[in-house]
Amino acid sequence: MKKKNVYRKEDPSINFRLPKELKIQIQEAAISKNQTTSIFLRDHMESFLSGELIENELAKNVEDTFMNSTEFLQLVVWIFIKRNENEYVEGDRIWQDKYISTIKSIDNQLPWS
User: Fold this and answer.
1) What is the pLDDT of residues 54-113, one digit of tens each?
2) Where in the chain are the domains?
3) Are 82 and 93 in contact (CB under 8 A)?
């Protein structure tokens, strides 16, 4: 865990303008984390400059690779095709067995509400 810096009134500051909507979003995000706007923005800028922010985003992308995998796409297409068929097709059991592991992994990959 990194050590938090202590800032004083005499420390340098930066002022800049932003759209009203963006300011509201930042304030709401800071409130949701129980932080001041200043601390929230400072933490995000430090995270951006250190590279930690992009590392976190890349880690999220790795977690989301299931949704972009060939296996998941094949499963979705197969389900769509089966939904439109009205009769049993020889060889369906082979495909069902092939997708069992993909179906089992859905529970760990999809964001359930």
Assistant:
1) 887 777 766 667 777 787 788 788 777 777 776 666 666 666 667 776 766 666 666 554
2) 1-50, 65-109
3) no
| Rounded-to-10 torsion of CA 47, 48, 51, 54 | 100
12 has a pLDDT exceeding 70: yes
Q: What angle do CA 78, 103, 59 make, to 5 degrees?
A: 110
Amino acid at 31: I
Structure tokens at 5: 């810096």
Helix-strand-coil split of the chain, %, nearest 5 = 70, 0, 30
What's the pTM? 0.49
* CA torsion through residues 8, 13, 17, 18, sign: negative
Residue type, 86: N
CATH: 1.25.40, 1.20.1630, 3.40.50, 1.10.1220. Which one for 1-50?
1.10.1220
